[in-house]
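Researcher: Please predict.
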Amino acid sequence: MTLRPILIHPDPRLKKVCDAVPDLSDELRTLAKDMLETMYDAPGIGLAAPQIGVTKRLIVLDCVKEEDAAPQPTIMFNPEIIRESDDTNVYEEGCLSIPEQFAEVTRPKEVGVRWLDMDGNVQERDFDGLWATCVQHEIDHLNGVLFIDYLKPLKRQMITRKMQKLKREMARG
């Protein structure tokens, strides 16, 4: 497996709407495994293909945080939210493409999601709590939406400027 470099905002590839995955190839399965490895290494609880520069509708997540709990790596091709609760939750969200920046985002508390698994089978599941927030956050990436897009313009601009500065510092090495 290969660790993939994660794009840092602002990057035009993070604002693109991703293409549906027409059929599952070995190349896409390998990409999904690389994404899981990259996510765990970061460390994070979710990663979307556009964050590594691939404009395909593919996300990976694992929101198990307890030390002794078994990981639950979840790979979703063409995920779509098919229902959402009226109740909302507020979580402090972060993003691997916007390192060390966090902000509260309000989203539906529960969502139903349909996707294709690694074998090309249609899966459907309801998510709540952190899993619901994470899957919505990652699906947003597939639509060119970042969590900071939910913030007031001033806060969003402030975070974007911090990321531009970080990218300049990284470029200098």
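Model: The helical segments are 26-41, 129-142, 153-172.
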